[in-house]
Write a structure and sequence with these properties.
The chain is mostly helical and 140 residues long. The chain is built from six helices and two strands. A two-stranded antiparallel ribbon has the order 1-2. The N and C termini lie far apart (47 Å).
Length: 140
Amino acid sequence: MAGSGAKRAVSFRFDRRIAAHLKRRSTEIGEPQAALAERYIEEGLRMDEHPLITFRDGPTGRRAGLIGGPDVWEVALWIDDLAGETHPAAVVVAESGLSRAQVDAALRYRAAYPDEIAARIELHRSETAAGAGETAPDTP
């Protein structure tokens, strides 16, 4: 999620409780404190900029998702699949149970981070294609 650009040293002073909590969490998940703090700051900034967006872990890493809904890439893929429709977002709302606000939030997030969402869609497509090549075992 975070860019791979050059790092810049920044100094912060945290409340002792927050510092201890960060250290505990870092130890629990085996991620360096600085990397964890950077992730929390990055995700917090993105959530401030994009209400209704949260971040969650999964087998392919952390990804943006709608609070109470699917991952952003899933909504984006659905919209892409409805490219021939006059109002694809309205179709998603009607067929998914998502609110228009949720769909719009996913689309705004995608517009802000197009490479991230495109990479998730490509990962899904490649995994789906690989899975489609598998055959079911013969049954007697």
